C-alpha cells in the first residue's frame, strides 16, 4: 500500500497540479458515487466506457434543479399574470378561481380544485403569441421575488445541481431537462440558469398554431393540452425528442420514477439520482406527504435499484445559486 501511494504521488507530481474539484458544493457518499460513475463511463478503453454521443443525462426541473415550494413557480407566474391582466381589465374576473388568483389568495384558489387551477393557467398561458408569452415570463423573472427567500426565482436554482450539469458537460455528456413544467416557460430561462439550450428542454405543452397577423407569421398558444410530460409520459417524451435511452437521470418525486426506471434499465453503466428534500432550515423538508413533490415509491425502492439518494441537508454545503458562496 505504501509503495502504491508513493507511486501515486510521483505520478501526480509528474502530471502537474491536481484537478479542481468538479463538485465543490457536494460532500459525502453521493458525491463519490456520481464522480465514480462519470469517470467510469468516460474512461476510454474501460469496461464501462460510453461514447460521448450516448452520454445522455436527463433531469426533472421543479424540486430537482430549482425549488418548488410553496407551489410550483410556474403557478406563481400564472397567478401574478392574472393579477396583472385584471388590473388592466377587471372584467376578466369571471370566476372564483380568477378572483382568488387576482387577489393572490392561494388558499381560496386551491379550494376551487383542479378545474380552478387550469382556468388560471389558461388565462395566463393561452390565446397569446409565443413571443409575447416568452416576453411576459422574462419580465416576471426580472421583477418577481420569492416570498420566503426574497430571491429572484431563477436565483433559486440549486448550486450543487448547476455544478453537476457543468461537470457532466465537461465530461462529454448532453444534458436535458425533462419536466412536467411547461416547455415554453422553461425555455425562457434554462440556458442562462443551467447552460441547457432551448432545444434540450422537454416539458408539458399545449396546442399551438401558425398564423399570419398583419403580414407577420406568428405562433399562437392554444388552450388544449397537447402533451403531459409527467410520470409515464417522461420516457415517452424522451424518446420523442431525444431518440435515445439516457444513461443518467435525476429527479425528486414519484413523478420522476418512470424516468429513472427507464434510464437505469438496460445494458451498461447507468445511474439514477434522487434529490431528497431534508433541509427544513435552508430550504424545506418534505417527502411522503404533501401537496407537491411527494416521494414514496422512490424512497422505498432507491436502495434496491442502486439509485443515489441525495440528502440535501448532509450532502450539500450550499443550496441556492443566488445566495452566494458560503
Question: How would you summarize what this structure contains?
Answer:
The chain has helices at 2-15, 29-42, 73-88, 96-102, 106-111, 113-125, 130-143, 159-170, 183-187, 190-194, 233-241, 257-264, 297-305, 312-315; strands at residues 56-59, 128-129, 174-182, 201-213, 216-227, 248-251, 271-278, 285-286, 308-311. With 326 residues, it is an alpha/beta fold.
Description:
This protein is of the alpha/beta class and 326 residues long. It is 42% helix and 18% strand. It has 14 helices and 9 strands. It has helices at residues 2-15, 29-42, 73-88, 96-102, 106-111, 113-125, 130-143, 159-170, 183-187, 190-194, 233-241, 257-264, 297-305, 312-315; strands spanning 56-59, 128-129, 174-182, 201-213, 216-227, 248-251, 271-278, 285-286, 308-311. Helix 3 (73-88) packs across helix 6 (113-125) and helix 4 (96-102) packs across helix 6 (113-125). The longest helix has 16 residues, at 73-88. The chain is globular, with a radius of gyration of 22 Å.
Task: List the SSEs and their pairings.
Layout: H1 2-15, H2 29-42, E1 56-59, H3 73-88, H4 96-102, H5 106-111, H6 113-125, E2 128-129, H7 130-143, H8 159-170, E3 174-182, H9 183-187, H10 190-194, E4 201-213, E5 216-227, H11 233-241, E6 248-251, H12 257-264, E7 271-278, E8 285-286, H13 297-305, E9 308-311, H14 312-315
Parallel strand pairs: 1-3, 1-6, 3-4, 6-7, 7-9
Antiparallel strand pairs: 2-5, 4-5, 7-8
Amino acid at each position: 500500500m505504501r509503495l502504491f501511494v508513493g507511486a501515486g504521488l510521483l505520478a501526480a507530481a509528474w502530471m502537474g497540479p491536481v484537478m479542481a474539484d468538479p463538485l465543490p458544493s457536494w460532500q459525502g457518499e453521493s458525491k463519490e458515487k456520481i464522480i465514480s460513475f462519470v469517470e467510469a463511463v468516460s474512461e476510454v478503453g474501460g469496461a464501462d466506457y460510453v461514447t460521448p454521443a450516448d452520454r445522455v443525462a436527463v433531469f426533472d426541473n421543479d424540486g430537482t434543479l430549482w425549488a418548488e415550494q410553496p407551489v410550483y413557480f410556474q403557478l406563481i407566474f400564472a397567478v401574478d399574470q392574472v393579477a396583472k391582466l385584471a388590473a388592466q381589465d377587471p372584467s376578466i374576473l369571471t370566476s372564483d378561481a380568477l378572483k382568488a388568483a387576482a387577489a393572490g389568495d392561494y388558499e381560496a384558489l386551491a379550494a376551487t380544485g383542479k378545474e380552478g387551477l387550469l382556468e388560471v393557467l389558461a388565462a395566463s398561458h393561452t390565446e397569446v403569441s409565443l413571443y409575447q408569452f416568452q416576453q411576459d415570463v422574462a419580465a416576471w423573472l426580472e421583477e418577481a421575488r420569492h416570498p420566503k427567500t426574497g430571491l429572484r426565482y431563477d436565483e433559486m436554482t440549486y448550486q450543487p445541481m448547476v455544478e453537476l450539469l457543468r461537470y457532466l458537460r465537461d465530461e462529454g455528456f448532453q444534458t436535458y431537462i425533462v419536466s412536467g413544467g411547461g416547455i415554453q416557460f422553461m425555455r425562457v430561462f434554462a440556458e442562462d440558469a443551467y447552460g441547457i439550450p432551448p432545444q434540450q428542454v422537454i416539458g408539458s405543452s399545449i396546442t399551438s398554431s401558425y398564423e399570419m397577423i398583419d403580414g407577420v407569421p406568428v405562433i399562437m398558444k392554444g388552450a388544449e393540452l397537447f402533451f403531459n410530460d409527467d410520470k409515464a409520459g417522461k420516457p415517452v417524451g424522451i424518446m420523442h425528442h431525444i431518440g435515445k435511452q439516457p444513461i443518467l437521470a435525476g429527479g425528486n418525486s414519484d413523478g420522476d420514477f418512470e424516468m429513472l426506471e427507464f434510464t437505469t434499465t438496460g445494458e451498461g453503466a447507468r445511474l439514477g439520482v434522487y434529490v431528497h428534500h431534508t433541509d427544513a432550515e435552508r430550504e424545506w423538508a418534505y417527502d411522503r406527504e404533501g401537496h407537491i413533490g411527494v416521494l414514496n415509491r422512490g424512497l422505498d425502492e432507491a436502495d434496491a435499484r442502486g439509485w443515489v439518494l441525495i440528502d440535501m441537508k448532509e450532502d450539500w454545503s450550499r443550496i441556492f445559486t443566488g445566495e452566494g458562496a458560503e
